[in-house]
Amino acid sequence: MSLSNSSESELLKSLLEPLLGDFQYWFGRSRTFLEDTEISFLTAEQQADLLARVAQAQSEVSAAQSLFMAIGGQAGIETSVLAPWHQLVSECWQVSHRHRLAGSSHSIQIESQE
């Protein structure tokens, strides 16, 4: 038994629209973080490279969202396109997590010196 085109389109919309929105959200947060924060364990070049990759991915997601909406959700996005975005979000999460841990350990060191 196969799904009707309408059902497939609705399923695609219900999965892909929120996923693209999530990518936009996390790339936006990552971009703000990278623009506003000096990350001690990254060189300026590494931080600039990560920021450039986030900005590029954010543009790609915007283009994918526009195309998806323009065609009424009638086509999906290859996983080969989604996977690098997922990897980049994961990399940003790891950098943010490490930055928070470094800040926490710094706070603990300062408190223990008082």
Q: How would you portray this structure in words?
A:
It is a single chain. The protein has 114 residues and is mainly α. It has one domain (5-113). It has three helices and no strands. Helix 1 packs antiparallel against helix 2. The chain is elongated and about 50 Å long. Mean pLDDT is 88; it is low at 106-114.
Count all strands and give the number: 0
SSE pattern: HHH
- Binned strand content: under 5%
Low-confidence stretches: 106-114
Distance between the termini: 70 Å
Helix content: over 70%
Question: How large, in whole angstroms, is the Cα Rg?
Answer: 19 Å
Structural class computed from helices and strand pairing: mainly alpha
**Bulk shape:** elongated
Number of domains: 1
Query: What would the average pLDDT be, to the nearest integer?
Result: 88
Largest sheet: none
- Count of alpha/pi helices: 3
